[in-house]
Amino acid sequence: MDALFHDFKQAHYIRNGPLLADTLSPIALPRDPNRLRVFHSQSDDYSIASDVKYQVLHYDKSIDITKAEANAWVDIYIAYWKSLGPILDAENVPLEADWSKIYDRWKDVANSLIKGYSSGNFPSWTVPCLYVVGRHLRIFAIKADESARVASGGVQMKTGGFQDDIASDIGKNEKLEDAARVINRIFTLCISDRASLEESRKWALYYTTNLLFKTYFKLNSISLSKNILRALSASRTDMPVLEAFPKSHIVTFKYYVGVIFFLEEDYKQAEESLTEAYKLCHAYSHKNRELILTYLIPTRLLTTRLLPSVSLLRPYPRLLTLFMPLVRAIRLGSLHDFDAALSAGEPEFVKRRIYLTLERGRDICLRNLLRKVCLHQGWKDDGQMRKVSVSEFVAAVGYSERGGRPLGNGEYLDRDEVECQLANMIYKDLMKGYISREHSVVVLSKKGAFPGTGI
Amino acid sequence: MSLHGAFTAVPARQVFARPQPSSPLPSISQTTKAVDTSQTEKPRREWPEPVRQYVQRAFAQENHLPDVSRQEMETKLKEIIAESASSNTLHETDWANLLLPQQVIQAGRAASAIPKPMPTNAHWGNAFPSVSAQETNASANGVISKKRKSSEWENSQQAQPPWRNTNDRNVLEDRISYPDKRQRNDSPGKGTSKSQYHLDSRKKRFEDSKSRDALPVQPASAKADTVMEDGPVVGQCQDLEKKYFRLTAAPNALLVRPLHVLEKTLEFLKKKWRKDGNYSYICDQFKSLRQDLTVQHIKNEFTVNVYEIHARIALEKGDLGEYNQCQTQLRALYSQNLGGHPTEFKAYRILYFIHTCNRTDMNDMLADLTAAEKKDVAVKHALDARSALALGNFHKFFQLYLGTPNMGAYLMDMFVGRERLAALSNICLSYKMDVKLRFITEELGFESDDESARFICEHSGQAFLEERDDGVRLLTGKASNYFEPAKQAAFRRVDIKGQI
Description:
A: mainly alpha, 21 helices, elongated, B: Serine Threonine Protein Phosphatase 5, Tetratricopeptide repeat, three-stranded antiparallel beta sheet, 3 strands, SAC3/GANP/THP3 (chain B)
């Protein structure tokens, strides 16, 4: 108990947020591995209130906090002490951990902290407490939901109430949804702070936002993130500039914003945010760079039609296996290899939500193939109008789709389908020219028939 | 009190204060014109003074009853006067002492709370449209040959256990009238609005369920009063049909049908659907069927069957809201491996996500599919359609559209229009000079040149069609960007009802 409150007072003397946040950590600190146990064992349900009161209010009056502030801290530490019971039990016997109880107790800690802030008791340097409490609230919620799922053996069927149907909203993520609401309150707490910037909780905004994004992504309700972004952009004018925030907050924020745009198929904005995140990201944050690239590569494939080089991917073996087969197929213009690579990587692509974007890379692959057909005819960029027979393209597409294998029994070339794909190339501006059905030829533009490829 | 009366008399008088001899009963005809046109077709006439006073009394504030709405009262009032007029008793009736319409309604409600001793079959004829009307409806639907009907589906897929077949039709028919006694005996006039009718029947139901408890005919009524709050109900109701009401209190076992009755109900409803095709009736009955299953916690193959059939019927009738409700339930039921046709409905889900352009859900859907499911005909078809659209391969997409398995065509119809616009846009931009209309017909999956020409004209592209010696041509060179705005508009509005 002494050690914990020693830090509490020390943090207040030097206004050190992270040190204060450490006193609310549910995980023992490496420098003091026994602190939680000692703290918990030094009191009991009956005397904890008076113990904490004594420590905060009476023991040492030298620190500069108001009575209201001290009382708010008393409530928080009482809730914190109560949460330690089940947490330490879980540490002792991990298999019998009652995560749901831990979550509920930890939520009490979060709520009393929120209460302290909303009644205006705490100065802004204490916001790291919100980080540590919010972060663990999310972790405990996920564990509680996991164990609930295991206990119910999969789907939960709600049977109470008056609903007409068997399965109502399947409460798979009950606690995490609840946690999202609590974290959202923290967000509101920060964004609605009207104090001057030096003393504002707005400095906690991006950390909290990131925590919310993470939660919404996990809950598969990514659309909710849009509300947060809207709230942020609405109060942009009276917020510190983005660059003034810690880089770690900004990188994560930009990453999530980029992914949200990516999922909305707004690739231009996605590219912008992801590129910023990539540039800001610490060179040794290997994991984060890998995550950013996972979305930046498919994005750039569509926006700039650029493929990643091997040297870019080499430090990330996972990305190398993920993207290289596709990249190789696109370079070669091999539709067969592309289809094979896409379907081989499908489970992984779908999991990362990049499948539907990568799939469109087939257009680039096809473009490269058609370009090869033209080059094969001895093209030079001499400003002449070019005509290529549709049959040439049909033959090439068929050959490429079969991976060079001759036409098998019962197989046939679907001329109309290839023609449709050619029309698509023109429509998407990957190829300049037009199709003449009358003469069954593609008439290609004199200059830049395949924009951005040199011919 | 007198002050009160003097004040409230004003609004009623106001209406009559403008004497318009040419217009009979202005207040009634004005307020209910929209609902009832039969009144206005009748010859105009002067109403006798006692009738006018009666009307005035009916509208007077002090005679207003809280549980009778103004609209209901007006309808009843009109009924009373019309009845009297048609029987030529306008001058004989003692209007001064006649019950006011609101009082008649109240009395009617009280009377209907006591069930009639003998149900009559006559009620059937009124409750549902005549068979002939349904038949013409069904034959009109039958024209679309590429789509399967939900009723066909049941015939071919659900083998009926022998004991179901042995059910004598007469036995079923005998039972079907029971719910009638729960209907209002002052059955709503033509003028009553539908929602008002539902409100009434709802109200009615609560009165009624209480009175049913008290009936000596029903066994174990005392027991039923102590239905446990949480546990599953054990149904005791033997009726085959039951109108749907949303529960607002713990279910009453006397009104819930047990599984073996519900099984017969399903068979009965299937026959009824094939015969009459009355969707609003079927939907209502299925909802009550689902409710009975839920309150009894019945989760088995039968449950799956019920939801599947309801989903197919809703799909056929384009009732996306109900369809989505069933889909949500089916998804949960399939995850418990209770049988049914999971791949058929997964294919529908994929097609639905194409319709709503929901990439996030589509991605989750792809993540959920197993390798075996992806090989299933219906699922593969839906996936192929999805990827064809993703790559703009409209040729392949419309080929797939023409060969849609099960009832997927009903879903595809919802977005085929916008995809045709997309393809048309595409063709106009990439083909120069012109193409034969026949080409459009074939590429865009139309059934005839007429149909494709009509589609182009519907999007005011008639100027780009030109008749030549060898047939009609579409002048794509001139129409380059013409269909692009229409295409973009079509993709913008995707309405989502009861999203899964």
